[in-house]
Amino acid sequence: MQITIKLFARFKEIAGTGKLTEEVAEDTTVGQMVDMLRQRFAAMPLTAERTILSVNQEFATPDTVLQDGDEMAIFPPVSGGSNSRDKFMVTYDSISLDEVAGLVTYPHTGAVATFTGVIRNLSGDKDVTRLEYEAYHEMAIAKMKDVAAEARAKWPNIVDLAIVQRIGSLDVGETAIVIAVSSGHRHQGCFEACQYSINRLKEIVPVWKKEFGPDGEEWIEGDHNPSLTNT
Q: What is the pTM for the complete model shown?
């Protein structure tokens, strides 16, 4: 059977490609595919703690059995073109806070809470000149929708939620992400849902960043691994 493997961030750099197509036997597992990659790319750090696995854009575990035509993806823990009414977007274009807030504003919404993530010139004690963002686009959109569904379940009175993530090369001062949440009144969960969404996004939405500065460049990864926790 034929399996497509997508690689992202440092894994893609080591392999020299973001996509592999493999012919494998029936009942091959995700773990066996990872072992194959370990043998082929000795420099690829495919440790269980630092490797997230997915099949058909859903998180997977090493014992997940693959089927013919499956799309498997391998990526590290995430870093911390659509029409104008799409509420979940990954884009190379500049992000407008007002436009994203407008996506969740209706005649019956009296409150809109927003979060804007901006590129800063420091990371810990290191100087930063720019960041480069990469995403597993299709899965990122799917997981943004999952984040929104989780927020709605926790705060059922929110009216709407939008998440827009920018990718590509961003300079200091540019906006990387905007989240907007609306509700009828300010006390109906819009603040809490907005904060929850950015925290959850940094756990499960597959977007990575590479920092560039005077001392070189480095991929920045988080600590949450859904392939181990399944959450």
A: 0.72
